[in-house]
Structures are given as C-alpha cells and as structure tokens.
Predict the 3D structure of the following.
Amino acid sequence: MKPSVPKGTRDFSPIEMAKRNYIFNTIRSVFANYGFKQIETPSMENLSTLMGKYGEEGDKLLFKVLNSGDWAAKLSDEELLAKNSIKLTNKVSEKGLRYDLTVPFARYVVQHRDEITFPFKRFQIQPVWRADRPQKGRYREFFQCDADVVGSDSLVYEAEMIEMIDQAFQKFGIDVVIKLNNRKVLAGIAEWIGEADRIIDITVAIDKMDKIGLDKVNEEMMAKGITAEAVEKLKPILLLEGTNEEKVAKLREVLAESATAQKGLDELEEVLRYVGESDVKCGVELDLTLARGLNYYTGAILEVKALGVEMGSISGGGRYDNLTGIFGLPGVSGVGFSFGADRIYDVLTMLDKFPKEATAGTRVIFLAFDQKGLDYCRPLVREVRRAGIAAEIYPEIAKMKKQMTYADNNQIPYVAIVGDSEIEAGKVMLKNMASGEQKLLAVSEVIDLLK
C-alpha cells in the first residue's frame, strides 16, 4: 500500500519550511514590537474545555481523541447496538485536539491567574485542527498565529491590532483591506428587525455573504425561522454603501432606538479615530456583513482580505468580554486576532512575494577528490561556520560530477573545490555556481566574500 497523509494535512519540504519560518519570524517580530510575549498550550485539551465555546457548527468540527486503554470494555451491549455516535463519543472520548488558540488561552489565563499581571499580552504560534471538508486554502491541520490582550477594556488595543496587521502585511508586501464591524451593532440590528433572540442564526448566515451572495443568505435565514418581513427589513442595512463616517451616521439614525447599537457605534467611531491618527497604510472599511460566526465576540470584530487574489480571510479577530467567565473568572475583557499562516503562504506564493533570502540555506560546500583533500577541508569548514556562514562538506570521495550535482540540486550558490595544487597553495578554488566564475582564495577571503 502506497504511504499517504490524511486528507487536509501536508508534509513540508525544506524549502517550504524556510518560507514558513519567514512568515512566522516576520509575525513574531511584529508581535514582539508591540510588547506581546509567547506562550504554548498542549495540542490536546479536555473536551469540557472545548465543547460549547464555538457554537453548534464549531462543536461538530472538533477532532475527538479516544480514551487510552480498553475504552470499549466499559460500554454495554445496548450502547454499542444503539449506534448513537454522539452518545458513544461522550462515553469513549474525554479529550480533543484544539480547534483554535483562543479558548485554550482563556483556560490558561484562569488556571494561571495568580502568576499573571494584567493587562496580559500574549502571542501563540501553534497548529490547530478542524474536522472540516478540505478545499483550496482550507486545511484540517494548520497553524494559527494569535495575539491577545486580556484584562483591559481599552479600545486602544483594537486600534493597535489594526496597526499590527498593517505592519505585518507591509513587511510581506501584500496589499490588504481590513473589514471592521461590531457585534453590538449586529445585536441592535437584530432587535430592530424584531428578531433579537435569533442573533446567532442571523450572524452565522450573513457571515457567508461574500461566499454565497445575498439571496442564499436570505434563504438560510428564512430556513431558520426568521420572518420574510425581517429579512426584507435587513436588506438595505447589508447593502449599505458610502464612507465609514456616512455608514455610521446612517446607522445612528436607523438604530436610534437601540442603546446596544449606539454603544457599538460609539466603539467603532473611537477605534476609527485612533486608526485615523496612526500611520496605517491599508484600507479600513466598516462592513456590516462581517459577523465572524463565533459566539464569543461581543464588541469589535475584524477580518483581513488580500487584494488581487481569490482567497478567504487571511486574518481576523475581535473583542470578547466573557470568555474567561466560562471557566469561572468573570469580568476579564479580552481582544485578539489571528494570522492565517497557511493562507498567507498561499498568497505570497500566488503573488511571487517570497524574498530570495527567505529560502537561502547552505552558502558554500567544500568538495575534494581524495582523502587528503577531505582531511584538508574539515578544519576550513569549521572556520567558515564559526564566522556564521552556513557551510557543508561532501562527506565521501565521489566523482566530481556527482558532487557538483548534489550542490546544484540543493541550490548551494558556491562550491569550494580542493585538489593537490589548492592544498599546496593553502587555498581553495571557489566557484560561483550561477556565473561559473572561479577564484583561488584563502579561507579568510572566502569568508569576506560570503559575508
């Protein structure tokens, strides 16, 4: 049987890993620049930690882990014959792979509250798993790069997150637009159309607007029991156009009766004012169809789209006021966002934006014709490495063609060839693989040239 990996997962080659590390290191540098400190949490969490935090749709996408030992021995014949997968899963699985990094972070904050100074700014770069249908740009195992602040209500953090997103994508050379909305405004709209208790159904549906279009969103809402009258009333709001200021003004007028919506609009205006004072280069756009269908957002929500490529959101997040309350620590407000590293990788590939130095590996390889040459090369390789230059030595005596092919296939830009005359001169013949130019150089000169 031919070996393979599970659907929705991937192997990464050395070149791919070099590119991925370029993404992670760029993001890490932006996080650190804004005072965020790194933590890690386990791949597995107790299902009691994960279940009920992502809404009904999210719960279905959790990968469950079977209990260790003979889990089947504890089941009755009746339970096995009933073939009820949900009940069986509850009996045989107590752990699951994490679905995101935010819920484990909330658990971390509650568990370590006595060691933490608030506001607590953390970032995490780790893989997450979702039992989703794999498709272009959507994987079952993928990395998230999260930054969150907990323990402060200040909207300065929302504005700083927009700055961080802008800074990261400037470094990547990707043009983006940041879409901004507020869950309080969405709650006010749900009140206004007379469907306040259906806020989750409404947001799950309208969040799909850019994927399935207005008609299908309307169909989905009506299928959930939202009245045709309410759906019709919602339509002009979802299609609202104009500048951010014009949209806010229009919403203030339409939603005048909703204190919740007015509070959301106050928050949006304040964030937009802070952003206006900064040097953010990308577009920041108020988008009322942005809902991010997760239950835990309570204030600002944002999503990032890359311009010029067909791709879902490549970053997103928002404000959550009650997440740690689920774990017994109420009143800790948080705001956070996540970079989709895999999608950023795909966008950089599509736009050919990876810098050449991102994939630079070994700079020079030493090649010899015989044992005497190998013995001569070994201390030279060490000297080059001590100077901070990545270097290799071909480890055995082989035909020069085979050694040169190895250098070529591994994209090593320079080869240092050693024969009797080079040993006699105390030098190496350094060949530039791109130009074919050769120079007889001492190892100190090789170091100067490659530095």
